[in-house]
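hey can u check if this looks right to u? its 466 residues, i copy pasted from the old doc so theres a chance i mangled smth
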Amino acid sequence: MNINNFRLALLPLALALAGCTLAPHYQRPALPVDAKYDQATPVGNVADLPWQNFFTDVTLRNLIQLSLDNNRDLRVAALNVQEAQQGVTVQRAALMPSINATASQTSAHEPANLYNTKTSGAVTYHELNSGLSVTSWELDFFGRLQSLSDQAQETYLSSAATERATRISLIAEVATAWLTLSSDNDLLHLAQRTAQSQQESYRLTKLSYDGGASSDQDLAQAESTVRAAQADVASYTRQVRQDVDALRLLVGTDLPATLLSHATLDANWQFPATPAGLPSDLLTRRPDIMAAEHTLKAANANIGAARAAFFPSITLTASGGSTSSSLGSLLGGGTGAWSFMPSINLPIFDGGKNEANLNIAHIEKRIDIADYEKAIQTAFKEVNDALAGQDTWQDQLTALQQEVGANQRDYDYSALRFKQGVDNYLNVLVAQRSLYSSQQSLISAHLGQLSQKITLYKALGGGWKS
């Protein structure tokens, strides 16, 4: 089946499968939801944009460019493309004769009476030879060499598409790693501020306890919140360091010294808007699908080569030139010499080797068809999952912002009632923990929203155009 018809036949299948605490005087502002993103004019298929236009943050742009220049996985992928390209040259060369120029001199001396004859004297022979020769040129009557050349070409194209897929994945991984670092850095700062305010609350509670105005339970509860916040500080400090290490590995070189000072989700993050809807050109856009397609074409070519092995192979060996006993007469008349040796190899009995190779080629093609189908199914699933998150993440962020506001008011009221002696300190602690937890959830949800936009950009096959 023609590969383009095969892709169109798979399109309906793919579409079907796609189917803690703050001090009373401090109020943590709600993280800004990317409102400008939601109000942006859709740009059609966002994958048409180069990554430089999709990511507007300067620090992130610099990190992505550093990774494209230094990442070892991308470097290996590029070298694999070069290796496959040289393989194409090797296979194409087999279609052409190898012509070699030769020149040689032979000198021999025979002593007198070598053959026990009284008349034979000492003789010295000189023979000079020059010419051109064709060594073992196979005439490709049955297409074996052409099939191998086509296989090498498709393997090269598959490697090139794989390199582009690696590039897209790297861009998305660097962007996601940067957002993860920014999120954990925000969580660390929130935990540090919480620990400081809780330490102050504990100090005031201790003074009240020493004065007999607070109970042992109040003091123990205040200390508990301090220790919990301190544990969070240690946890997020460790996580930030691990995020930096992960980002350094992706980038492949030293990171900017001022990196952490710019790592925050409070920045004005904006991504071009993408309208809902499944792109009909996904099959021709994603490099992983293109790589699977070329691999399938290479399997077809391999079947042709295996089938041609059943037919005779004809090889020519020929040479032509001059030979003489002296250099002066090497190019003179009567010194021409030539040889011509055609040979034919007819497979009669090979113990089933050729048939087994042909069967293997057919099996490999079926495997490649399954991989191609899986690549299409995966692509549509990833796009559908990413599109499904566009509205839900926004709704979740809005709800969490409102929750943070409600918890802030509850905490303020609880703190005020405690100061006036209406409520005990336990209500203040409960309100503090609820506020802290909702702020953590808001930061995590903001990370999820931004990461989802990057995932959609990657799933649509964007990012490799320069």
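Strands lie at 99-110, 123-139, 313-324, 336-345.
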